[in-house]
Structures are given as structure tokens and as C-alpha cells.
Amino acid sequence: MRNVQQDANLEAKRRAAAQACEFIEDGMFIGLGTGSTIKVLCEHLAQMVDDGLKVMCVPTSYSTELICSELGIPTTSLLQCPMLDMAFDGADQVDEQLNAIKGGGAAHTLEKVVAMSARRFVLVVDESKLSPVLNSPVPLEIVPQALRLVQWQVEQLGGEPLLRMGLRKDGPLISDNGGWIVDASFGEIEEPARLDASLNGIVGLVEHGIFTFADTVVVGSANKVRVLER
């Protein structure tokens, strides 16, 4: 059964998603992230499409692609449309400087590619995702054969790497790209940009979940929405 907090979070997501959709203009090419907040945004966007809005969307996961298919949202890929007008995504955590940690859904590699392909990158979150400083584990998508090497390199940076295991399957969780996911704990991340650069130098790491380039963060609560700009 749903509890009161879950209902409040869902309402906050709906408010934030509705506000974010106001940024969309007819004829735009849009990137769509992955996760529960983006599912809510897709539901709102689908109604806009039904009302005549013309858009083309690039999903960042099989999950979002299926949602778009079910809701009648037209999709394309970065191969057909390498530059996007805007990209929307959720986040696991956002700090006061609008840096974020993403990857709870193991889709952060394509999410980052799509976000970097957009002229404007918008994070859509409920207020529970805000934190004065980032301190959640950082998801890392890795080449499976590089597991031990990546773990060692993460430890050299002061992190504690943990291989994410699959649910309702034996063995590691496998991303849409065929990679494994390692969740690396670094405690409080005082300098996200520095850790971003350090992680980029790890051999065997495909992509990490630190995002330091959001242009806008739309924050929903039970009774209001805030729009934060970098």
C-alpha cells in the first residue's frame, strides 16, 4: 500500500514535470531520461502531443523507449538527430550548486550522452532529492573484464566500490549497453568537478554518474515548484 509520503512525492513530481513541460516548444527535438520522474513527465508530454504538439524525442533507455511507445510519443535516435533542443532527466541527488548524481536506474551513460547533445539540460526532481552536498554512492558503468582494475583505481581515489547485483536474476546487474554497474561511495563530495575529472581517467570505466553541467533544475514540492538556474 502507498503511504502518505509516497503520495506527496508523486504529487511533487507531477508539479515539477508540468512546470518543466512548459519549456517545450512546437517542433523541438527532446532528450528524455530514465526513472520515475521522467515517467510522470512523459505522461504530461503525451497529453500535449495528443493536443497537437509536434516533437521528436530521444529516449535514454529501453524503459523510456517502451513508455514513449505506450503513450504515443514519437521517438528517434541520436544517429538521426545528433543535436537536441532540450533534454530532461531526473536525479538521485542534487547539491546547492546544481551538481547531481545519477545512475540509480543504470542508464547514466546514455543519459549523459543525450544531455551533452542538448542545448539546454533540465533536471526535474522532487525536493527530497536536494542536499547541501553530494554524498550518495556514484554509479559507474564499467567494462565487465575491468572489474578488479576499476575497483583498485576507485580505492586509490578514496572510494569504496561495490558491484551492483541484479534483482530476480543471478549475478551482476547488466545495463542496456551490456556493462556492469559499480556503486562507489566517496562520503561527502566537496568538489564534484574534481572527482568528475579523476573518474574520467579510470581505465575500464565507461561512464560515471556525476553530472556537473545542468542548466536548470525544476524542484517540486507538495504545494509549489521552484526553478533553479545555473
Description:
The protein is an alpha/beta fold. It has 2 domains: 4-132 and 212-229, Rossmann fold, CATH 3.40.50; 138-208, Alpha-Beta Plaits (2-Layer Sandwich), CATH 3.30.70. It is 31% helix and 23% strand. A 6-stranded mixed β-sheet has the order 2-1-3-6-12-13, sandwiched between helices. A 4-stranded antiparallel β-sheet has the order 8-9-7-10. Strands 4-5-11 form a 3-stranded antiparallel β-sheet, with helices on one face. Strand 4 (93-94) and strand 5 form a beta hairpin. Helix 1 (4-21) packs across helix 2 and helix 2 (36-50) runs parallel beside helix 3 (62-71). The longest helix is centred in the first third of the chain and has 18 residues, at 4-21. It is globular, with a radius of gyration of 17 Å. It starts with a helix and ends with a strand. The model has no long low-confidence stretch (mean pLDDT 96).
